Amino acid sequence: MNRKPTFLARRRKLALATLSALAAPAAGLLAAPAQAQTSEFNPGAKPITLIVPFPPGGPLDAVARIVGEAVRPTLGNVVIENRSGAGGNIGMDAVAKAAPDGHTLGIGALSTHAINPWLYPRMPFDPLKDFAPITLLADLPNVLVLNTEFASQNRIANVSDLIGYLKRNPGKINFASGGNGSGGHLAAELFKQLAGVFMVHIPYRGAAPAQTALLSGDVQLMFDNLGSAAPRIREGRIKALGVTTLRRAAAYPDLPTIAESGVAGFRDFEITTWFGIFAPASVPTAAIDRLNREFTAALRSAAVRERMLKIAAEPAPTTPAQFAELVRRENRRYQEVVRRSGAKLD
C-alpha cells in the first residue's frame, strides 16, 4: 500500500537537495587552484610564440621555422614572430618580460647574449639572469672569403698567402662587415690581432650589402656566414680560404678551417655563430624540461638535420645546463674581443 510522504519527510528531502546543490560549486572552487597549477604550461591548448629577434629570411629565422614545424605534433602550434632591431635586443627584451608560462620563447644568439652586453652602454635585459636556457639549436660557421679577382691577381690561395700580402701591404685591404660589432666584424678583428696585420673596416647595414660590396670589388675581404656565402663560392664569384670553426663544416667538408692553416697563433682560432631557445627566467622547471625534451628530439631527427645542413646550420642539441654554461663562457670571452676591437654602439 503506497503512502504519501509526510510533511517532515518532504522537508528533509528538500533540505538534502539544497545542501547538494550548494556543495557542488564549493567542490569546484576547491579544485580550481590545483587545476590552474597544472594548466600553466599546457602544450596544444595554447600556441607557443617563438620570437625571432632578427628579420625574416636569415639562417636564424630559417632554423626557427624548421624546428617550430618539427615540434608541432608534440607541442602544438608554434607561431614565429619576428621582432628585429637593436642587434636583437628588442626581440629578446620582449621574451625576458613575457609571462613565465612557457608559451613565449625566443631565439637568442651569440650577438644578443655574448656580444651586445659589451657593445651597448645600456642593455634592456641581463643576458645571464633574465632568461632560462632551454637548448642550443645550431652552430653556423663563418667563412673567410676574398673577392675572386683580387685573390687571383695577387696569387692568394690560402690563409698564409693572405697574411703575407697583408704584412707587405699594410692598410691596402678593406674588409666588409654587416655592421660594427657584428660577428663578421669581430672575426676580422680577431684575425688582425692574431696575425699582427692591419686592414680597414667598412661597415654596412647588414651582411647582404656587405657581400654585394665584396662581389663588386669595393672591398677585398669579409668574414661571411657560410650559409649565405656558399652559393657565391660554388659559382666561383668569391674565394673561400677557410671556416672559422675548429672542425670542418659538415655541409662543406672540403673547406679547411683557419685553425688548419699552419700559421703560428691560429691553432685555436674559432668564432662561430650559435643560437638557441630561451624562456623567461622564472618559467617552471617542469616546463623547461618538457620543452628541452621536445626540441632536442626534433634536432636529432634525420629530416631536421638534412634541412638545416642545406643552410650550413649544424644541429647542436644540449641540456639546459650545458647551454647555460656555453652562454656564460661566451659572454666572458667576448668581453675582451669587443674591448680590443674598439667597437661601441649607442
From TrEMBL:
SUPFAM superfamilies (UniProt xref): Periplasmic binding protein-like II
Alphabetically ordered keywords of this record: Signal
CDD domains the UniProt entry points to: PBP2_Bug27
Cited InterPro entries: BUG, Bug_dom1, TAT_signal
One Pfam family matching this protein: TctC
Domain of life: Bacteria
Transmembrane annotation, as ranges: none
Signal peptide (from-to): 1-36
Family listed: Belongs to the UPF0065 (bug) family.
Protein name: Tripartite tricarboxylate transporter substrate binding protein
